[in-house]
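Folds vary. Our protein:
___
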Amino acid sequence: MRLSDSEWKIADCLWNNGDMTITELTKELRPITGWGKNTIITLLKRMTEKGAVTFVQGDKAKKFHPAVDRTEAELEETNSFLDKVYIA
């Protein structure tokens, strides 16, 4: 599964912090990225459709969780990069 640079930022945040709501993700990522809530929602929707994140509906908000293992995602990204650089 290929993640865009923006999706990597969200996945990294979830890998580092565990399950998070949209509000928690926005608070964490806004200082780094400048993204607002709507951007986070759009990216999470795309990632959910890809199968990169899942969520559980809590009492007040959805809690998002990475559905891909960090090590596997990093390995796939590395292999993809090497394939681009060293075309056989």
About this structure: The radius of gyration is 14 Å.
